[in-house]
Write a structure and sequence with these properties.
By secondary structure, the protein is of the alpha/beta class. The chain has 2 domains: 11-53 and 143-232, Rossmann fold (3-Layer(aba) Sandwich), CATH 3.40.50.150; 62-134, no CATH class. It is 26% helix and 16% strand. A 7-stranded mixed sheet has the order 3-2-1-4-5-7-6, sandwiched between helices. The protein is globular and about 55 Å long. The structure holds S-adenosylmethionine. S-adenosylmethionine binds at residues 3, 5-7, 33-36, 38-39, 53-55, 144-145, 159, 161, 176. The site of S-adenosylmethionine (SAM) has 18 residues, from loops.
Length: 235
């Protein structure tokens, strides 16, 4: 699924590294900030998988994706505005589906995805429905990441919101508390393998993979900071 800050293009590098740390088909794997599920949909060496995100519309969408009937959905700017302005009137899964698939760059209600290709939105919807074939054995959860503080013996992948220091624009500012997050990772790394996608990390984290790439977010294209996968040094 096309998703703001999603890892579609980088998944071919990141997935083999995650799979290396998953030692058996019963090992627990948690995609803690799953978004468009562009990583967990390719993790095929365990059957014990959780996809978590704190966006309730997103998780409801994944849990109900088999309800989507594209022939019944009006792909128009009017319908997009109607759903955006009346979220409580529609079911959460439907708000999620429209909010992500009809929006530019997969940003939840970030602006209607006008395109010179008429069927652009329809193709993106169809892609997500097909993607779900690879997510059928995944348990979806709608929690803040700290809900999983008692987990042990798991491989936990964190594609948390980027630290704002790496962003050139304020458009992607978030209220995410990065200091608290890194502290949480230190604690969790004692009993789990925790892998973090970020551009910067505190000194006690090591880079286990790195690649420079052009972000799909045009307003930070000038940012040359490379994509990295980090792990706590003392784990
Ligand atoms: C960069 S996106 C993940 C993209 C995903 N890996 C992909 O490839 O499509 C980060 C996600 O973290 C979620 N998020 C932000 N704060 C969170 C929190 N405190 N707990 C859980 N999820 C959170 C956002 O809703 C967003 O979906």
């Amino acid at each position: 699924m096309w998703y703001l800050g999603g890892k579609i293009r980088l998944s071919k590098y990141i997935v083999p590294i995650i799979k290396y740390y998953i030692k058996s088909e019963n090992s627990l794997f948690i995609d803690l900030f799953c978004g468009g599920c562009n990583i967990i949909d390719k993790i095929d060496n365990t059957n014990n998988k959780i996809a978590n995100d704190n966006n309730k519309y997103l998780i409801s969408m994944w849990n109900n994706i088999d309800k989507v009937d594209l022939s019944e959905i009006k792909i128009t700017k009017e319908h997009y505005d109607e759903v955006r302005n009346n979220k409580d009137y529609y079911e959460d899964w439907y708000v999620g589906f429209i909010g992500f698939h009809f929006s530019y760059g997969g940003k939840f209600f970030g602006g209607f995805a006008r395109s010179r290709y008429e069927d652009h939105i329809e193709r993106s919807c169809t892609k997500t429905i097909k993607q779900y074939e690879y997510l059928k054995n995944v348990y979806f959860s709608h929690q803040d990441y700290k809900y999983y503080s008692n987990v042990k013996d798991a491989v936990i992948y964190c594609d948390s919101p980027y630290d704002n220091c790496t962003q050139k624009s304020t458009k992607y500012l978030s209220s995410f508390d990065h200091r608290e997050f890194w502290e949480w990772v230190r604690k969790m790394s004692k009993y789990n393998t925790v892998l973090i996608s970020e551009k910067i990390a505190p000194d006690d984290f090591e880079v286990i993979w790195e690649k420079s790439h052009n972000s799909n977010m045009s307003y930070i294209k000038s940012d040359k900071t490379s994509e990295k996968l980090f792990k706590y040094k003392r784990s």
